[in-house]
Amino acid sequence: MLPNTKALLAFAGRFLLVFFLTLPLWFVVAPAYNRLLASTANSLLPFPDDPQLSTTLVGWKHYILIVRSHRPFTEGMPVQGFTAYLTHFNLILLVALVFAPPQMERWRRCKMLAIALGALFLLHVLYLVIGVKVFQQLGPDAFQNPAGRLYGWGVDFYLSIAAQVLPVLIWMALYWTMSGVPKTEDTEP
């Protein structure tokens, strides 16, 4: 067995354990997180010149819906919005990565978790604000023109690749900058 194999197996085991323990918790917390994301994004959305054309976000169950004041909701009307498990499911990955390293002080782990969750929260809000702006500019038939298809491709890219890579990059940057490996006498200069 290679010398680092034990450490890698310990990391993988802890990662999987935390991931699967956090998964059911996400389904409970997601509706409240949706409301928090929606209210934060609403505060960043610029107010239009015409108040009758305002757009707001509403967190509802496992969705973040786009509500327009100039188009009252009617039955059978297509609803635009964001699905929670596509928007912020990467929180589970981030939490599991932060708790996976076996030899890290508790205060350092908590500090890393707070910074990482804050960074990911800001990225989620940015994603929502950009998404609402694109939906506003492109209108209800958003994906029928080239700009809408380009946005659709960008969303697909974000949701399939970037959304899962971002937590890993955030965790790697924090782990490296916060020197996640505890200093011992034989590692100090």
Main attributes?
mainly alpha, 63% helix, 8% strand, elongated
Describe the model.
The protein has 189 residues and is mainly alpha-helical. Helix content is 63%, strand content 8%. Strands 1-2-3 form a three-stranded antiparallel sheet. The chain has one domain. The model has no long low-confidence stretch (mean pLDDT 78).
Describe the secondary structure blueprint for this structure.
Blueprint: H1 5-44, E1 55-60, E2 63-68, E3 81-83, H2 84-87, H3 90-99, H4 106-138, H5 146-177
The secondary-structure class comes to mainly alpha
Helix content class: 55-70%
Total tally of structural domains: 1
Question: Largest sheet, if any?
Answer: 3 strands, antiparallel
DSSP, total strands: 3
Radius of gyration over all CA atoms, rounded: 20 Å
Topology as a string of helices (H) and strands (E) = HEEEHHHH
Binned strand content = 5-15%
Distance between the termini: 29 Å
Short description:
The protein has 189 residues and is mainly alpha-helical. It has one domain. The protein has helices at residues 5-44, 84-87, 90-99, 106-138, 146-177, and strands at 55-60, 63-68, 81-83.
